Amino acid sequence: MSTHFDAASAAPGLADGPSSRRAFLQTAALTVAGLLAARPLRAAAQPSVPSVLTMTVYKDPNCGCCAEWVTHVKQAGFAVTVRDIADMASVKASFGVPDALGSCHTAKVGPYVVEGHVPADLIKRLLREQPAGRGLAVPGMPMGSPGMEQGGRKDAYDVLLFDKAGKTKVYASR
Predict the structure, then answer these.
(1) 3-state secondary structure of 155
(2) Are strands 78-84 and 105-109 parallel, antiparallel or unpaired?
(3) pLDDT tens-digit profile of 5-63?
């Protein structure tokens, strides 16, 4: 039994000299490049934000800044259902929003709660990153936050990620 490798029979043209080898390698490289280009590209392992972002906002029927915040999230691409509720304290309690984090409106988006004037880009980041936690909150009603724009005044504020126990950490500062 012979163990001799015959390059000419394995890849015609390889034994015919350097120019034939070069042509073979160029053809092989183009074939591999074509196969790689034809494969669908896989996204990074990071979850993506759904193309239609749905949100339910619970707010007092007489609150103007809540309506402005709803306009803000709609402009950012969220499909919003508004529920006018007179007893917001019961809504916040049912979603596990600690009293210290309270604001004027509460929203539910995906598995998360959004309390107060949280910027829409941070809600999208929350949905994309999916950190462990109950949701995001902007306690109080800081001037310059979405829905609280008053001329050029803009107070610095933190957006807090909170968990089921009510513990918080700063998710972003604005």
Answers:
(1) coil
(2) unpaired
(3) 444 444 454 455 556 666 655 655 555 455 445 544 444 455 555 556 999 999 999 88
Specify the pairing of strand 168-173 against strand 78-84. unpaired
Between the alpha carbon of residue 79 and those of residues 112, 135, 138, the distances in Å are 16, 19, 21
Please classify residue 52 by burial: count the beta carbons closer than 10 Å to its beta carbon, then call 0-12 exposed, 13-18 middle and 19+ buried: exposed
111-122 pLDDT, tens digit per residue, is 999 999 999 999
Please answer whether residues 173 and 157 qualify as being in contact, where contact means their C-beta atoms are separated by less than 8 angstroms.
yes
Compute the residue count for the chain. 174
DSSP secondary structure, 98-132, as one string: -GGG--SEEEEETTEEEEES--HHHHHHHHHH--S
**Segment (H or E) for 9:** helix 7-10
pTM, two decimals, is 0.71
Counting Cα atoms < 13 Å in the Cβ hemisphere of 171 gives 27
The pLDDT score that the predictor gives to residue 92 is 97
The residues pairing with 169 across neighbouring beta strands, listed in sequence order, are: 161
